[in-house]
């Protein structure tokens, strides 16, 4: 805890040396501006924070000595700070003078709470000053300064969504809330980006408040130019003679990014996916034979994943019917064994997985947590989207006793094995535990149930099922699907055993789950109307402002129309479009070790707006030639296909469309994650009951072993036209219309 008494002369001299870090000699002409910002930050702090920093008055008085001019207006002061930051950036001195770069950072994003930012910046300034004086805290100081600076640049949206409201609390409570939030994120995933970012703020705050000694650590670096990656490891169960010989591990690697939306897209690409097949015990077979065996196992796993009706490794109706007749006979099967068998069958999970699920014994139900990073957003964004809940219930039939499922003991496993062996010998079946647990997924996929519903029933996460991140749905959709599966089992066993699965009605409020990034028609309609109004309000033959608003209008229209991933050169070149048959070739990722893409059909309204944009480019090439020849040439290159179709103009300079420039431009018009349109359209297609495999093909989510539109695919242009017509109808209903840009 901090000492609230006056600081000593020695401490005062120490702070003087500390503060010199903010005033490098290379920026001697800017010292007055930097000092003014330090004073402004010290005056920003709420009273409850000032009590925890006895160094505050000394820092203010030391900064006052550096001020050489009179008070200047706030807007002019902010411009001066931005100028200093740009000078550091231009000279590539950000890392060298990281403390100064942090002090002169200015919040650029209009969608962020500027008052919150200034408070965090002020607290961080005082924390860093104290840690400098304490010594051995160089790394925490660098990291927290970098996090606040990156936040000011609009590159920490997900961090900002999770930061505590700093203004109305005190330092101790702020530290406790930061600790709670970071632990919450890191418990979900030890590699959570937001969790690590919260830790980078919590650690220096904690060390400063409780006077903790610093720690010097060595850091292992990656090879230069190597991007960070995330590795997901899954163990795959085998059956038959292979169980005792081989062990199969699935490895999926994808690039790790700072933003949640980028991690969603990276996870959905699945460009690196391998099976690691290892031998448990030494074998007399040679390497060539072992290699052939491994290839055969890998092929069988891929075949099983397809869930084909002809696959002998899937349970038949007769096998499930026979299993149910035994399960419902209390003289043969005890209550615990029956509960595990029915839970595995109806929840599509292995027995080990069932024992790890969260059950509510009070109402005999399964508690499902569906938490996504996108569910936490900043206050200005929440009013644009549809919030969702993170927990819901599925009522289990009374034949499944929930309070018996938390412990899978050896005795129960032996009883299950003996029962399956008895059934197989007596009825000539080939029932296995994997057949039982995979029957739900097989049947629901056969009935064209969306994979998000299947994954939720099975208790899977977005890491292994990227569709979960993009889909907004009702918990009632999941419950009704589960109840229909129970009804199917009742009908299936009606010829041999009369079964009626009854369950308690869980009196929970029906709500929305999954992705919250789905705007209402009213919000989207207002958005397009606002863009149209701004375009029409700007007069003149050529201006960068008019160009950018026209670009926004066309970009958002085509984004919703195509589901194009946010990448550099977003929405491609004019040569990717066929204006005669409304098709667009999308190549926004790589799969199967080669560059591939997908074909979609554009809605008619999107094509008409695109043609208007092409007219605008031709007129712009002429009008800009009187002002800026480089911009005029860029218009011409977009028309001919030499360069990408879209670009921004800032301060009479060309900015190509990249994720970073998109984030900066869109923040003032629609401050949502850059892939919000993919959430919006997938949820729309799900709601309209489009076939899930067609949705996956349109989204680019087709599995590595199920590529869409290949020689074995049954899809056609007619199927794509269904999606195109549906999106066209939606766009026209939200005031997205053809307008003249010239």
Would you mind describing this structure in some detail?
The protein is mainly alpha-helical and 742 residues long. Helix content is 51%, strand content 10%. It has 30 helices and 13 strands. The strands form five sheets. The protein has a three-stranded antiparallel β-sheet, covered by helices on one side. A three-stranded antiparallel β-sheet has the order 4-5-6, with helices on one face. The longest helix is centred in the N-terminal third of the chain and has 21 residues. The N terminus is likely disordered.
* Spatial extent as radius of gyration: 30 Å
Q: Assess the beta-strand content as a share of residues.
A: 5-15%
Low-confidence stretches: 1-5, 590-595
Report the count of strand segments: 13
Sheet with the most strands?
3 strands, antiparallel
Core attributes:
mainly alpha, single chain, 3-stranded antiparallel beta sheet, 742 residues
Summarize the structure.
51% of the residues lie in helices and 10% in strands.
Fold topology:
Blueprint lengths: L8 H11 L11 H14 L2 H4 L5 H9 L9 H17 L7 H6 L10 H21 L3 H15 L4 H6 L8 H18 L4 H17 L19 E8 L9 E10 L4 H10 L2 E8 L7 H20 L10 H11 L7 H13 L3 H4 L4 E2 L4 E5 L9 H4 L8 E5 L14 H18 L5 H14 L4 H8 L8 H4 L1 E3 H18 L19 E3 L6 H17 L6 H19 L14 E2 L4 E9 L2 E8 L2 H21 L4 H12 L6 E4 L2 E4 L2 H8 L9 H12 L4 H8 L17 H17 L9
